[in-house]
Design goal:
Layout: H1 4-12, H2 16-38, H3 41-58, H4 69-86, H5 95-114, H6 120-126, H7 130-140, H8 146-153, H9 157-175
Helix pairs in contact: 1-2, 2-3, 2-4, 3-4, 6-9, 7-9, 8-9
């Protein structure tokens, strides 16, 4: 049985292994809660990621006498989800934004198509899911920053950073 209170207190002392233990013990359930609240997997993943950052930053504020550790974790997640819902982070794009996105997608599709079908890079890019491949290509073909990509595809900045980071890690592993 996981002692969440001890793990949170260890996080407050800077023990990253404790945060990893909390993630392993509760990450799946937290993702399920976030999916139910936000009704979108990408937003739920962002909410969970943001929640773990907040847990790490505020672990020193946890007071065992005020409530259960597990409740504290899920309160942070719930508040993050509610903030995301309240801020309407998935607004409807304007016609200009749609046209810019179409132009961007045409450019990255053309760059992708120009790769030799038997090249290692093409094979590794094919192994990425669409979101990661698009994020990586927008960053490296068009030179967009994470913030610019987030604005272009109307996705949270944390998601974009994660997609690019994970996509590059998969490419690195595939190409080595």
């Amino acid at each position: 049985m996981t002692d969440h209170a001890q793990l949170i207190q260890a996080c407050a002392r800077g023990d990253t292994a404790s945060l990893r233990s909390i993630m392993e013990a509760e990450g799946g359930r937290m993702l399920g809660v976030a999916k139910r609240m936000l009704r979108r997997v990408d937003l739920a993943e962002d909410a969970v990621q943001d929640s773990f950052v907040i847990i790490w930053q505020r672990a020193g504020q946890f007071d065992q006498t005020r409530g259960a550790a597990k409740g504290w974790l899920y309160t942070i997640l719930r508040n993050r989800c509610l903030t995301m819902l309240r801020n309407n982070i998935w607004e409807i794009p304007t016609e200009t934004e749609i046209m810019e996105r179409l132009q961007d997608s045409d450019i990255i599709a053309e760059a992708y198509d120009r790769l030799d079908s038997s090249s290692d890079l093409r094979r590794c890019l094919d192994g990425l899911d669409d979101t990661k491949r698009s994020a990586v290509l927008l960053a490296y073909v068009l030179g967009y920053s994470h913030g610019e990509i987030a604005g272009r595809v109307q996705a949270p900045l944390g998601s974009i950073k994660a997609w690019v980071r994970r996509g590059l890690a998969q490419l690195r592993a595939c190409l080595s």
